[in-house]
């Protein structure tokens, strides 16, 4: 019995050490911006500021005049450009219900850690209705959110707010990931 507990504890500590190990790459460049696609949202702004090598302060604000509908969606697309610009490759293409995601905090595993940090650095409510001035400041984006097996690449993330099948806003992030120089 004690041997089983010892092995389980050792495996947990080893796994934890692997997860917290220094990533073999850094985010070399990160651009983030938002644009309004309809008059439904006001004063939409997104920004990213490089604070250190591989670390970017990401934030934004938006003014939502009347509550978002219960059927509002967030469309998340994560893409990689292919060589010679032939076609883009989608790694993730998912539509999430805004209200369901806020209530249950169930998110695609790839986005879970970013979503939890985003909630900690914003005044986004934990349930519907979503209304008022929403802001996010002080979210530091770095390689810690990415899996360790990612190669050097350029990637794009597009997040679109959809309400009643109409797009109201889109935010886009572009990152360049490179191997660390030892």
Automatic annotation (TrEMBL):
The family database entries (Pfam families) matched by this protein are listed as:
DUF1091
Q: Would the keyword Zinc be found if you checked this record's keyword annotation? A: no
Using the record, list the residue span of the signal peptide; answer none if the entry has no such feature: 1-20
Q: Which UniProt keywords apply?
A: Signal
Q: Does the keyword Acyltransferase apply?
A: no
What is this protein's name? MD-2-related lipid-recognition domain-containing protein
Organism listed in the record: Stomoxys calcitrans
């Amino acid at each position: 019995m004690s041997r089983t507990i010892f092995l389980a504890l050792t495996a947990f500590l080893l796994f934890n050490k692997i997860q917290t190990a220094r990533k073999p790459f850094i985010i070399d460049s990160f651009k983030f911006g938002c644009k309004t696609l309809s008059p439904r949202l006001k004063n939409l702004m997104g920004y990213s500021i490089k604070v250190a090598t591989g670390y970017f302060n990401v934030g934004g604000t938006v003014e939502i005049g009347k509550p978002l509908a219960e059927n509002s969606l967030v469309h998340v697309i994560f893409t990689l450009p292919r060589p010679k610009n032939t076609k883009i490759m989608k790694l993730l293409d998912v539509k999430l219900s805004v209200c369901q995601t806020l209530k249950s905090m169930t998110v695609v595993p790839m986005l879970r850690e970013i979503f939890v940090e985003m909630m900690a650095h914003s005044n986004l409510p934990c349930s519907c209705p979503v209304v008022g001035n929403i802001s996010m400041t002080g979210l530091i984006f770095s390689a810690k959110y990415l899996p360790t097996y990612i190669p050097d690449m350029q990637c794009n993330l597009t997040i679109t707010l959809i309400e009643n099948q109409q797009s109201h806003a889109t935010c886009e992030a572009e990152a360049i990931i490179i191997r660390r120089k030892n």
